[in-house]
């Protein structure tokens, strides 16, 4: 695992203490993870630059933008430019199609499963580099090792394949092969990877955008709704068990219950519904800084 900067320490001898360091963990949740943009924008406004970032699934993608030096406003602008237009989304998906039939058949015909690496290359901003080493802030990307039955954490080498693995939601995307592992969505094993940052900074912020099934209707949930809803429940169970052992200093849970994992084109509604998280984060940081100074 790549080395990260040490947590801030008090200056030697008399005098004021140094500013506390921050680490941030951004969780998975598909389109609900667009709420991470509010968090990144708020950190920008507060002048907080994390010493290390971890991310799972959409959180890994947002974290990569932040680690590359993008401001929250730039990430928002790119996301809106890409997602607010059906024509733009369709054009990028079309560009991500296999160039040859042989590529389509690679690994066997997989109807309904997209190549996550191709999709990401079509949608990621150009500011995100090709390798972890080119990032301005250390980043740890999680994925699930399907046959190894464990969490895989990437922080070195090729970046985009790690992001693709972290976002490879089963039934939507094909697994990613890397380093001898068959990898799927990092949220399956660690939905909000704050625990892998423990001890890396004075203040640890975690953002949970998993949500839970809440929208009732007269009809029973469809097969797809049941699949995604059951996954949400499983992820929340994992998060709850981790919180019993150790809690981050700040845990944020934006209001995303009304949105589904693939509601990316509802970006404006998601951003409007979750905007209050900015004030919550500001209050939390102010409170914890007061305690730190005291």
Name some characteristics of this structure.
294 residues; alpha/beta; globular; disordered N terminus
* Count of helical stretches: 10
Give the low-pLDDT segments: 1-16, 100-105, 107-112
Give the strand tally: 8
Radius of gyration, in Å, reads 19 Å
- Helix % is 25-40%
Order of helices and strands: EHEHHHHHEEHEEEHEHH
| Main pleated-sheet profile | 8 strands, mixed
Straight-line N-to-C gap: 34 Å
* Shape type: globular
Task: Note the beta-strand portion.
Answer: 5-15%
Structural class by sheet pairing and helices = alpha/beta
Mean pLDDT: 87
Write a brief caption for the model:
The protein is an alpha/beta fold. The protein is built from 10 helices and 8 strands. The chain starts with 21 loop residues before the first strand and ends with a helix.
Describe this structure in words.
The chain is of the alpha/beta class and 294 residues long. 37% of the residues lie in helices and 13% in strands. The chain has helices at 36-46, 58-67, 72-83, 86-95, 101-104, 116-123, 160-166, 223-245, 267-273, 277-293; strands at 22-26, 52-56, 139-145, 150-154, 176-178, 181-184, 203-207, 250-252. Strands 1, 2, 3, 4, 5, 6, 7 and 8 form an eight-stranded mixed β-sheet that branches. A hairpin with a 2-residue loop joins β5 (176-178) and β6 (181-184). The chain is globular. The chain starts with 21 loop residues before the first strand and ends with a helix. Mean pLDDT is 87; it is low at 1-16, 100-105 and 107-112.
């Amino acid at each position: 695992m790549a080395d990260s900067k040490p947590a801030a320490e008090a200056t030697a001898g008399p005098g004021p203490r140094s500013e506390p360091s921050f680490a941030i963990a951004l969780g998975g949740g598909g389109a609900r993870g667009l709420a991470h943009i509010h968090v990144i924008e708020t950190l920008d406004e507060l002048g907080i630059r994390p010493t290390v970032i971890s991310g799972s699934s959409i959180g890994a993608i947002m974290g990569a933008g932040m680690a590359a030096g993008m401001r929250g406003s730039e990430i928002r602008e790119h996301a809106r430019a890409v997602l607010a237009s059906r024509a733009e989304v369709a054009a990028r998906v079309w560009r991500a199609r296999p160039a040859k039939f042989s590529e389509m058949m690679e690994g066997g015909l997989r109807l309904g499963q997209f190549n996550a690496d191709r999709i990401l290359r079509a949608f990621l901003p150009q500011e995100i580099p090709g390798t972890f080493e080119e990032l301005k802030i250390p980043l740890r990307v999680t994925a699930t090792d399907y046959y190894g039955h464990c969490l895989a954490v990437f922080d070195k080498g090729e970046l985009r394949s790690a992001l693709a693995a972290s976002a490879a939601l089963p039934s939507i995307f094909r697994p990613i092969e890397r380093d001898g592992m068959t990898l799927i969505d990092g949220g399956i094993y660690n939905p909000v990877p704050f625990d892998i940052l423990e001890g890396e900074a004075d203040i640890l912020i975690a953002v949970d955008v998993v949500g839970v099934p809440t929208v009732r209707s007269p009809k029973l949930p469809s097969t797809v709704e049941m699949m995604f809803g059951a996954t949400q429940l499983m992820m929340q169970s994992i998060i709850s068990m981790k919180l019993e052992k150790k809690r981050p200093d700040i845990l944020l849970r934006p209001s995303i219950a009304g949105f589904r994992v693939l509601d990316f084109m509802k970006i404006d509604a998601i951003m409007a519904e979750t905007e209050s998280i900015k004030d919550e984060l500001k209050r939390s940081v102010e409170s914890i800084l007061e305690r730190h100074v005291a």
